Automatic annotation (TrEMBL):
The name this protein goes by in its record: CoA transferase
PANTHER family named in the record: SUCCINATE--HYDROXYMETHYLGLUTARATE COA-TRANSFERASE
Protein keywords: Transferase
One GO MF term attached to the UniProt entry: transferase activity
Native source organism of the sequence: Belnapia mucosa
PROSITE patterns named among the record's database cross-references: PROKAR_LIPOPROTEIN
Gene3D superfamilies named among the record's database cross-references: Crotonobetainyl-coa:carnitine coa-transferase, domain 1, formyl-coa transferase, domain 3
Domain of life: Bacteria
Length: 372
């Protein structure tokens, strides 16, 4: 699908959230120009890399062109101003206030430009100028508190870039909504007007936990743990298996599979609420039971009983899985400077494999197009 073919997107963002939004627009057919400072997007220096290219940068900047413009200098600002005058969509992720000082503003775009600002805490409010990362957003929003492990310690979700990614997806949705509204106005003959969007990591993190925030706000307290004893358990071979429970009767089935039928009859464990209250007595018994067979054996037994269960895979396990290979869930991308990288298909958009640009790869061409 190429619904945004002919759309010009000027991407002045760095890192993950803004660039990922722009890459999704590129996947939908938009022409995306990434404007980078002389040192390049900082993501070029992180993860496995070769020269100016890195796996992180490729992941969030596929399908774009790259032009290096120094917005601290007059020539760079003049070039950016000329590009902005052509932009249907503009993205920036500077600290609030910085973009305006260097001319990255809605007024620089077309009369009906969709202008997106991405920041840690939003463009207004007492925290607006605070720096923010995925881990800070997780801690601030309550996600870390909710992600308590079986060790009783609250954890960040790991190296998943959860909040950065969901912020990028949220920004993509917001831009699409603005473009749809813009199209409706054109049909109605309404005068053009800009759409200015404010998307923050803080708000995206909170939106991801909408149910949890709503429930705690309603109760005024932390509710009991849900779904106990759903979680991960280690088999005799050291591998882990994940078991999920949605209904109380599934605990009875779990006990039958583990050959612990007496647990299901124990009044301390008959309901989710009771199991949450007595989890310290229940979990050690279950953990010991799982050590009697391999994780794969347990996964087979739980699946045979139509229970929600699977092995805890690594990304390499996922790539090698027969189902993943059968449905073509990963698409190879030949990236100059790095080699072939397997990327998951974009959900609903299908296979899309376009390389990311080298730093400043298109600067001369872009400046020539502008007559500079």
């Amino acid at each position: 699908m190429q619904p945004y073919k002919g759309l010009f997107v000027l991407d002045a963002s760095q890192g993950i959230a803004g660039p990922y939004c722009a890459t999704l627009l590129a996947a939908c057919g938009a022409e995306v120009l990434k404007v980078e400072p002389p040192a390049g997007d900082w993501s070029r220096g992180l993860s496995t890399r070769e020269g100016t290219q890195s796996v992180m940068h490729v992941s969030f900047n596929r399908g774009k062109r790259s032009a290096v413009l120094d917005l601290q200098e007059e020539r760079g600002r003049a070039a950016f101003k000329a590009l902005a005058a052509r932009a249907d969509v503009m993205l920036e992720a500077f600290r609030p206030g910085v973009a305006r000082r260097i001319g990255v503003v809605p007024e620089a775009g077309k009369p009906d430009v969709v202008f997106l600002s991405i920041s840690g805490f939003g463009q207004e409010g007492p925290n607006s100028e605070r720096p923010c990362t995925d881990s800070v957003a997780q801690a601030y929003s309550g996600m870390v508190a909710l992600n308590q492990g079986m060790d009783g310690v609250p954890h960040r979700t790991g190296n998943l870039m959860t909040i950065d990614m969901v912020t990028g997806i949220s920004a993509f949705a917001a831009v699409q909504a603005a473009l749809a509204e813009q199209a409706r106005d054109r049909v109605a003959g309404a005068p053009p007007r800009p759409r200015v969007l404010d998307v923050s990591l803080m708000q995206a993190a909170a939106a991801l936990m909408g149910f949890n925030i709503a429930e705690q706000g309603l109760l005024g307290r932390v509710p009991p743990l849900a779904n106990v004893p759903a979680g991960t358990y280690q088999g005799s071979d050291g591998r882990w298996v994940m078991v999920a429970l949605l209904r109380d009767p599934e605990f009875v089935t779990m006990c039958e599979i583990l050959e612990l039928p007496e647990l299901a009859r124990d009044p301390r464990f008959t309901t989710f609420a009771a199991r949450a209250e007595h989890r310290e007595a229940l979990l050690p018994v279950l953990r010991e039971a799982f050590t009697r067979r391999t994780a794969a054996d347990w996964a087979t037994r739980f699946k045979a009983a139509r229970m929600l269960c699977d092995l805890v895979n690594t990304p390499l396990d996922w790539l090698a899985d027969p189902h993943v290979q059968a449905v073509g869930a990963a698409v190879p991308l030949d990236q100059p400077g790095l080699g072939t990288l397997p990327f998951p298909k974009l959900p609903g958009l299908g296979p899309w494999s376009v390389a990311a640009p080298a730093l400043g790869e298109h600067t001369e061409a872009v400046l020539a197009e502008l007559g500079l």
